Amino acid sequence: MKTQVNAQAIARLGLVSILLAATLWGTVGVVIQALYRLSDTNPLSVGFLRLALSLPLLFVVCGFTLGRKTFRVARRDLGLMLLIGAMTALYQVCYFSAITHIGVAAATLIALCVAPVWVALLATVLLRERMTRGVFLAGSCAIAGTILLVGIQPDSEMQSMGLGVLLALGSALGYAVVALCGRSLAERYHPLQTLTIGFGSGAVILLPFALGTGLAVNYSGLGWLALLYLGIIPTALAYLLYFGGIRHTTATVASIATLLEPLVSTVLAWWLLNEQLGSLGIVGAVLLLGAIGLLYLEDGRRKD
Length: 304
Known about the structure:
Blueprint: H1 2-25, H2 28-38, H3 43-66, H4 75-127, H5 133-150, H6 161-185, H7 191-212, H8 221-245, H9 251-257, H10 260-273, H11 278-303
Helix pairs in contact: 1-8, 1-10, 1-11, 2-8, 3-4, 3-7, 3-8, 4-5, 4-6, 4-7, 4-9, 5-11, 7-8
């Protein structure tokens, strides 16, 4: 009985860690908006610097925690960590490019809603995770809630709509692969190892894209503070919480739980930027919170 209670507590702690990571990710949009107002920059520069500025802290903490074990990684697993870096770079590049074709709302909607579907499908095939009715219901509520929360405002003058949709689907697929690779490595490696090696390779891969569009490095003091926040809090810390959390839950549940991110983004935009949520947005928020509650119950039931 005691072992069962401990398993439930660990499972719920893992889910709480993922929800906290999603909450931190939800602050990124407001901070980036502030950064754009403070400095002349571009999305790819911010994406590269976000990863690059997280690395010194990750290397120091990883070296202090793991010492020489930091780079003791099997060749096959090193390939997975490098794949995490490549897919991290991919989903950022695809997402930023999709915005130029179909706009922020549509690109965000496709990337956020399709990612859990990709994870569920790939996890069923590759990790042999069982698709329970509870997870399916939570996923349906989360997708419906995200659609209502983010909303779509189509622009009839938008060009290359098909290419933009494909780029957004590629962003969702990239994130799904990151989630699945992280879940696969979670039981064999400390999250710090996966993050340090993955983000390091991701920054290297993303650098040419940032240079190709003009890497912005001239920021005000407040601009650099915003960049440091992005690199340390919603990147290094949030991903550490996320990779630590998925050690105790499934990849599918983790991917759905991260849909808390658009809820946090919307609330912050309403609170700080006076953006209105709207009646449909409120319904979407309720559905999203309901999905999170279902996941909480389902994860405890799964551990039983």
